[in-house]
Specification:
The complex is a heterodimer of chains A (275) and B (165). By secondary structure, chain A is α+β, with helices and mostly antiparallel strands. Chain A has six helices and five strands; from the N terminus they run αααββαβββαα. In chain A, helix 2 runs antiparallel to helix 4. Chain A starts with a helix and ends in a 9-residue tail after the last helix. The model of chain A has no long low-confidence stretch (mean pLDDT 73). Chain B has 165 residues and is of the alpha/beta class. Helices cover 29% and strands 25% of the residues of chain B. Chain B is globular, with a radius of gyration of 15 Å. In chain B, 38% of the residues are buried. The model of chain B has no long low-confidence stretch (mean pLDDT 92). Classes of the chains: A alpha+beta (275), B alpha/beta (165). Chains A and B meet through helix 2 and helix 4 of A and strand 1, strand 2 and strand 3 of B. The complex binds guanosine-5'-triphosphate and magnesium ion. The site of magnesium ion has 4 residues of chain B, from helix 1.
Chain lengths: 275, 165
């Protein structure tokens, strides 16, 4: 091939290619503008319609679907009451527990001190007893720990929480304040379970149980250490019923000293822990 | 029980109920605000003019927005109410009329005393005017911070209740 021809050929190829590329690009641009233009035109017409429909739809949802949704929810909640309660219960329970714990801290602090103080003495006694009786010390310990024991008795006016009478062998914690606190705790718990007419019957606190028995204008709280067994509870309940028979008719006229006297007489045969 | 009386401190959040009680019990003041949860109970014995002793069991309740939505079981069996408002916060005494009406209707036999606290922060004269216009009788003004009028309000209510015997 001559030089001239080669050059021509090259020019041809280049030119043709150029034109084809230009054409392809043009076509592309055309379709793009076309779609854009058409879309714009389209949406101009369509958008208001969609908007209107959407507005209507939003307005209609609460009316048409609302009741259906509410009904479904209501039904679901009603049908799964247990789950709802289950979900709420721990929260409520924790709230109450925390409240009781903080309120009773003072009481328990003192009681724990009492226990610690006496444990040393008790321990020494136990060692001697084990030595002389041949019974294993741990067995003695268990029997001691097990036996429920009346530590304190409070007769408290309902509502005001004012202490009417009390049997106890410690003077460190103010009994008037304890009876106020007990009453506050009691009404808090009773209010918390709005079902009405439910009385708090016992408070358990680590080593102690507080048995509560309600009468018309007053209630009796008994602080018990050791294992608070059902049979002991029964015994105690009967005992307190008996006590109330003698107390109730004259509760408003008796002085605190008189009621204290009645309590001493009544719990004479019971092991009230002497300090 | 004769010789023992239940007195309840009432009022909105942060008006200074606990501070007043602390001042009365131990004669101290704390700047820190620790809101009361539930109730705390204190006891103080005072001697009446007759020479008799009176044990005051004082219930310091958590604040409320209105006495009508506080726990009624904390209020029943009371001998006296000390209703505290905060001189620096009108919202704590704007509803006093309704509060008094509610208390007098529901607890007609309970001795009610109303007191404005924090008078170390605010002069009470404009408030006195406001209360007079509304025909509201308050016992007086006090400050848990300076101690002014604190002992007096507790003694006053104790004497009042003690003499009702
Ligand atoms: N300057 C001044 N501050 C006071 C006075 N009394 C109370 N305070 C402050 O006000 C804040 C609230 O006081 P509290 O005694 O906790 O109020 P409260 O009425 O018991 O509050 P709740 O238990 O939440 O209802 C605390 O920061 C106190 O230091 C007062 O007489 N003067
Ligand atoms: Mg408080």
């Amino acid at each position: 091939m001559v030089k001239e021809d080669k050059l021509q050929l090259l020019r041809d190829i280049l030119l043709i290619d150029d034109r084809e590329v230009a054409q392809a690009i043009n076509r592309r641009i055309e379709t793009i503008t076309d779609t854009i233009e058409r879309r714009e035109k389209l949406s101009e017409k369509v958008d208001p319609i969609i908007e209107e429909r959407l507005k209507l739809f939003v307005e209609e949802i609460p009316l048409s679907l609302g009741p259906v949704i509410t009904d479904t929810l209501k039904k679901q909640i009603a049908e799964s009451k247990d789950q709802v309660v289950e979900a709420l219960y721990p929260i409520m329970g924790k709230m109450i527990k925390r409240y009781i714990q903080s309120e009773i801290e003072l009481l328990s602090e003192n009681m724990n001190r009492k226990v610690n103080d006496t444990f040393s003495v008790v321990a020494v006694k136990r060692k001697f007893r084990a030595l002389f009786t041949g019974v294993k010390e741990s067995d003695l310990m268990l029997s001691e720990l097990d036996a429920p024991n009346v530590n304190e008795v409070f007769v408290i006016q309902k509502g005001s929480g004012i202490l009417l009478g009390n049997l106890s062998h410690t003077a460190t914690v103010d009994k008037d304040m304890i009876s106020g606190m007990l009453t506050a705790i009691k009404s808090f718990v009773e209010d918390a379970f709005e079902g009405g007419g439910q009385d708090l019957e016992a408070i358990n606190y680590e080593l102690y149980s507080i048995h509560i028995q309600n009468f018309h204008t007053y209630y009796i709280a008994v602080v018990i250490s050791g294992t608070y067994t059902k049979s002991f509870e029964n015994k105690l309940e009967n005992r307190l019923l008996k006590l109330s028979k003698s107390l109730s008719p004259r509760i408003s006229t008796l002085t605190k000293e008189a009621i204290d006297g009645v309590l001493i007489e009544f719990f004479k045969k019971w092991r009230v822990q002497k300090k | 029980m004769e010789g023992t009386k239940k007195i309840v401190l009432l009022g909105q959040f942060g008006v200074g109920k606990t501070s007043l009680l602390r001042r009365f019990m131990t004669n101290v003041f704390e700047v820190d605000y620790k809101t009361t949860l539930g109730v705390q109970i204190k006891k103080k014995e005072i001697t009446l003019p007759s020479g008799k002793k009176l044990s005051m069991i004082i219930w310091d309740l958590e604040g409320f927005s209105s006495v009508s939505n506080t726990r009624t079981s904390y209020l029943i069996g009371s001998d006296g109410f000390i209703y505290v408002f905060d001189l620096t916060r009108p919202v704590t005494y704007f509803n006093l009329r309704e509060e008094i009406d509610y208390i007098e209707k529901n607890y007609p036999n309970v001795c009610l005393k109303i007191i404005g606290n924090k008078n170390d922060l605010k002069d009470s004269s404009s408030i006195e005017e406001y209360l007079a216009n509304k025909n509201l009788k308050v016992h007086g003004f006090c400050s848990a911070k300076t101690g002014e009028g604190v002992e007096e309000i507790f003694r006053h209510i104790a004497f009042k209740i003690g003499s009702n015997e």
